[in-house]
Design brief:
CDP-diacylglycerol-glycerol-3-phosphate 3-phosphatidyltransferase activity, about 190 residues, transmembrane helix, phospholipid metabolism, two-stranded antiparallel ribbon, EC 2.7.8.5, 6 helices, transferase
């Protein structure tokens, strides 16, 4: 059923190709000097689009819970949209040589592993909820990606590498939350047929 929360989630999915194009095509819209760095306007627009798309994740979840509009379609689409958006952004940051590839590989690998565990659980008729640590991981990833897309603005004026520090923090929480998720839900793998 395509209710309002599901439409909001779909809008997030439709924003992803636009976001990718903004970072993949060399638009010559100029740039701004921000401290000791330069921020291309196309990266600024892509950063704002990423922040907007990330915000819809909170909006659709809030709306679905508040008005009791949680559906199986929404349970499928919402995490898919999140993973597509974050993975796209991280891969593009590697391509732009802003994020280290090994950090991105660890983050994306954890997402594949948890998705696999959730699929096994779904096959057994179980739904595995996201943990608080998993939610913290998502917030840190979004903050890190946003800061890196905006070339560390406004911290670039201070020469403080906020974006990359957040990315490393997100990686650490990603590893810890992944371990915690598997530890708490290993019975799904152990008891599956």
């Amino acid at each position: 059923m395509m209710n309002i929360p599901n439409r909001i989630t779909m809008s997030r999915i439709f924003l992803i190709p636009i976001f990718i194009l903004l970072l993949s095509i060399p638009f010559d819209w100029g740039s701004w000097n921000i401290g000791n760095q330069e921020l291309p306007i196309s990266h600024f627009v892509a950063g704002l689009l990423f922040i907007l798309a990330s915000t819809t994740d909170w909006v659709d979840g809030f709306y679905a819970r508040k008005y009791n509009l949680v559906t199986n379609l929404g349970k499928f689409l919402d995490p898919l949209a999140d993973k597509l958006l974050v993975a796209s952004a991280l891969i593009l940051l590697v391509e732009m040589e802003i994020a280290p590839a090994w950090v991105v590989i660890i983050i994306i690998s954890r997402e594949f592993a948890v998705t696999g565990l959730r699929l096994v659980a779904a096959g057994e008729g179980l739904v595995l909820a996201a943990s608080q640590m998993g939610k913290l991981k998502t917030v840190l990833q979004i903050v890190a990606i946003s800061a890196l897309l905006l070339h560390n603005f406004p911290f670039s004026y201070l020469g403080f590498p906020f974006g990359i520090i957040c990315l490393y923090a997100a990686m650490i929480i990603t590893i810890v939350s992944g371990y915690d998720y598997f530890r708490k839900n290993w019975h799904v793998m152990r008891d599956s047929k």
